[in-house]
Amino acid sequence: MKRWIVFAALCFCILNVKAFVIDNDESCESEEKQQKMKCPKHYKGYYRQPTATNNQTKMWCLRVVMVNVSVSEQAAQQACNAEGAVLSTFASYDEQKHIVRHASKYFRYNNITQGSIWLDGVRIEQCRTLNVTQQIAAPCNDKTKVFDITDPRTDPKYAWTQWYRTAPSWAYWPIRTEEYSTYPTVDSITADCVQMWIYPGNDDRNGQLHAIHCDMAVPPYDFEKALFTNYGYVCGRPPVLSFY
Ligand SMILES: *[C@@H]1O[C@H](CO)[C@@H](O)[C@H](O)[C@H]1NC(C)=O
Ligand SMILES: *[C@@H]1O[C@H](CO)[C@@H](O)[C@H](O)[C@H]1NC(C)=O
Ligand SMILES: *[C@@H]1O[C@H](CO)[C@@H](O)[C@H](O)[C@H]1NC(C)=O
Ligand SMILES: *[C@@H]1O[C@H](CO)[C@@H](O)[C@H](O)[C@H]1NC(C)=O
């Protein structure tokens, strides 16, 4: 009896869907496509407008991974690669909000006041120079051009509007950012990677980007500079086909 009801219900559904397909072919088809794509466990999916600037990406899955030891940017990349993903970044306010919320929750739970997480992004070759003249000239002094991302499936246009107001400084290690009006100096080492600040009690910095030396796992490492200590990274990958 029960089986019969389920079967009847199923038939009704199929008929209904069919009717809908005939009614409104296009919208039903796209809905059907969306249902077939699914993000793996721990990943959250976001729809993106496919364009030439994001390699025609329609859906992208993001995972915020929090760790309790300092990792280099390269180690973060490898960790993402190991699960079929790449070090990634956000393409919209919603994606950014997801990352900030997830990381902030971890910080609050572990009583961490401030820190950072790795995102995709690398200083462009031309600007990896200690020549100050070049550093302070275009394109190296342009927030929208001085960094690029390594994975083409995210359009970084929105991310580059989220630099902290003094970032990317001709950001150097050791960290002496906005307090130093005389930067850059020739003895500095370039900061070529991108971190997002996680600072739940500070709306000015929480969720904002800054540039930093890529290898945080190797000294010089200043624990006094809690703000730059790395607590995680963001992996991104395409969805998988779902047969359910
Ligand atoms: C970008 O899209 C092209 C064409 O679909 C594909 O061959 C290539 O693998 C994509 N690149 C990445 C990194 O996904
Ligand atoms: C860090 O996390 C790992 C796994 O989550 C755990 O085994 C390890 O004890 C932790 N280390 C510290 C110092 O909390
Ligand atoms: C965080 O701080 C609270 C209050 O001081 C304490 O009870 C809790 O155990 C701390 N949690 C961790 C993970 O250290
Ligand atoms: C720095 O770059 C400028 C512009 O490209 C160049 O004219 C200058 O010679 C460079 N200075 C040094 C010390 O290499």
From TrEMBL:
Presence of the UniProt keyword Zinc-finger in the record: no
Signal peptide limits: 1-19
Gene3D superfamilies given in the database record: Mannose-Binding Protein A, subunit A (3.10.100.10)
Keywords annotated in UniProt: Signal
PANTHER family: C-TYPE LECTIN DOMAIN-CONTAINING PROTEIN, C-TYPE LECTIN DOMAIN-CONTAINING PROTEIN-RELATED-RELATED
Name of the protein described by the UniProt record: Uncharacterized protein
Taxonomic source organism: Caenorhabditis briggsae
